[in-house]
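Comment thread on ticket #2218

A.B. wrote:
> Attaching the input chain for the structure job we discussed in standup.
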Amino acid sequence: MKYVYRTFIVISILSLSILVALVYRIKPTHENKGINKLKNETVESAFEEDKKKDINVFETDKPLRILVLGVDKTATVNMSEEQNGMRSDTIMLFTIDHKNNKVQMFSIPRDSYIKIHGYAKNKINASFNEFVYPNGGLGLTVSTIEDFLDVKIDHYAIVDYKVVSGIVDAVGGIDVNWEHKDYFYRDDWVVPPLEINLKHGINHLDGMGAVSYLRARKVYKDQDIGRISAQQGFLMLLFDKLKSPATFFKLPQLLDIVDEFLETDLNYGEISFLAKYGLSLNREDIIGEKLTGHGENVEIGNEIQNVYVVSIDEARKIINEFPQKLIEKQAEEQLQEDEINTEKADG
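C.D. wrote:
> Ran it. Output below, let me know if you need it in another format.
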């Protein structure tokens, strides 16, 4: 029973972890949290509670929203991690509509130019940086996104990039199809240097190869949107592999990875409940959405910066159309499939 419970917890934590492709050198922080973080109890002590019940996180019919952040605290040749400060460079809001069993992963580009809660407009990822705002951090980021989308965020998850690297290595790597020309890129400004080496066609990526792949931006015409699309596609590949029977034997190793590098306010009972729910979902019940816009130079502080101008109306429309838009899309696809099958049968 303990091992089954452990299994549920691992899969659910993994689901939260892999649904954000953390693409930067990240270190979890335990300061400036606007939401209560994971209860301070060890994994082993939690597993010892044999009678601990799953906690239903779906208190009402309303969708559950979980904010997943990837936080960049990369050292550069002229600044340490501490001097660089912190920005959330991967921002995804997951909406779980348990009534219809649908999940939306909504990606917001890091340079989106929106109003920061209590301040003027800035790039959205600056809200996490305590060097930019005295109250910068998770709390300010949550409030900013809630204002922007006009929603309530129920939970959060922050993951170290080592989660992605470790999980990919543990499952034996991931095959991705690189549709572009052979691509090599090296950035010696960051410490350690970033090196991306991808060949046209199928690439078998180990952990660090996956992290490098997910960090690629300059190869895409629209850099942030291209990277977001790559992230979401990669996550679905990893999701498929994590649900395979072979993953069961990797659970102890995977547990160690996610327990060390995942920070969340969900307790173990809630995670266990979400795990069982997540295992019941089909791939087609998860839809990836991204907010698009256009680049523009604006004055922020005393300097001109390139930002990504987005529409608040478009953002809220994407949020509000879920899950109905997905349900209608699936119904239309099913109708087309039925018509094809009928034609084949008649022929």
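A.B. wrote:
> Thanks. Noting for the ticket: The CA atoms of residues 196 and 320 lie 37 Å apart.
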